[in-house]
Amino acid sequence: MTSLEYHHHFPLKSLNTFGIGAFAEQLAIVRSVEALHSVLLDNTLPISILGGGSNVLLTQDVPGLVLKNEITGIETVLENEHDVLVKVGGGVVWHELVLWAVGHGFGGIENLSLIPGTVGAAPIQNIGAYGVEWKDVFHSLDAIDLQTGRPLHFKLDECEFGYRDSIFKREWKGRAFIAEVYLKLHKKPVLNTSYGDIQRTLEEMGIERPSIKDVSEAVIRIRKSKLPDPVEIGNAGSFFKNPELEAADFQRFINKFQNAPNYPQPDGRVKVPAGWLIEQAGWKGQRFGDAGCHAKQALVLVNYGAAKGAEILDLARRIQDSVLEKFGIAIVPEVNVW
Ligand code: FAD
Ligand code: EPU
User: Fold this and answer.
1) Which domains are assigned to the chain?
2) How many Å separate Cα 93 from the centre of its chain?
3) Mean pLDDT, residues 246-252
4) In the annotation, is 217 catalytic?
5) Is 238 tagged catalytic?
6) pTM to 2 decimal places
7) Which residues line the pocket of ligand 1, CB cutoff 6 A?
8) What is the pLDDT of residue 1?
9) What's the pLDDT score for residue 81?
10) Element (H, E) at 222
11) Alpha carbon of 279 to those of 99, 150, 205, 283, 326: distances in Å?
């Protein structure tokens, strides 16, 4: 495989999990940092970065140059009695890294099994699921500044990771191309099975003393039962973030909606599941043409086949308005709208 592939007017339908039929004016698939530098040398077009396309909504053809990250490689670079430091190419498929770690008995990312997308996109929104976040195993990353072509290095405390947030969604948005990451995994991991669904699923599987592999398999089972598979129905996972209310706002809300599920956070705020708000506002299972709100998980907007990105976005806006009107709560997209 060559380290660089260049295409004009390239169809993106199979490169985004919503399955939206848009085109990239230019597409460069880069498989090494050197290939990236050679693209940047001649380029004058605006650049968008694409990984696995599992957290983007394409509302139009993408002007300029789309850089698709396919830099691969998984390598142990340091090791002691307790931990391993692993260097991973940003274009590696996230779940393949999870399977590699599980296969080697390295703990830390088993709760993040089956999240679609690439390793290089994981820091962008600090991916999270079942009680674990990306930041919990993150060591550092190497990126390229697309404006200057210079190498960048970010350590944990420089990434400003938060719930579905990082510096790469703000100051460095679209500018830092994440090429390689370093993760710290554990040889003697303490498993995190505190998330209710995991414990219950392990019991159903008849497992009392779970291994890393058991936890990974339990998470895979839960996810398959709840979330639509993009191969069957186009989607990008949760469309919105769960809102985190300040204590006083939460009190006002819960006085009025006493049966609302809620999760107090360490900082005093309280997370309210957006899926519940959307379901209560009457959207769950609704379909408008090929755009819809999933019947099993209201937080997931779906494309049943030929929906345009603009139709999904329009549905998202109507959901936002109705949740604001009914509950006085603003929900914001998790998905990146292009
Ligand atoms: P893309 O969608 O290609 O890109 C996402 C954003 O990151 C874009 O803004 C893009 O420009 C930028 N980007 C991508 N690669 C790079 C790079 N190398 N350098 C700089 N910027 C880059 N997310 C969770 O957190 N938890 C979940 O449990 C979860 N479940 C999901 C379930 C389903 C069924 C689906 C479809 C999605 C789910 N997601 C979840 C969302 C998604 O999987 C993650 O956000 C994932 O990290 C996106 O990776 P990607 O490679 O597909 O990124
Ligand atoms: N709920 C409803 N109706 C629904 C869906 C959810 O009432 O249709 C309520 C239920 O009370 C349920 C609660 O919401 O107990 C939480 O639902 P769920 O466990 O499915 O999790 P979520 O909050 O909807 C979040 C993440 C997921 C992640 C799971 C598991 C966000 C925005 N989403 O979903 O991440 O996989 O928890 O940890 O934080 C993603 O980011 O794309 C994603 C899928």
Assistant:
1) 4-69 (3.30.43.10), 74-186 (3.30.465.10), 234-337 (3.90.78.10)
2) 12
3) 97
4) no
5) yes
6) 0.97
7) 17, 48-56, 69, 90, 115-118, 120-122, 124-125, 127-129, 176-178, 227, 230, 235-237, 336
8) 75
9) 95
10) helix 212-226
11) 34, 47, 30, 6, 12
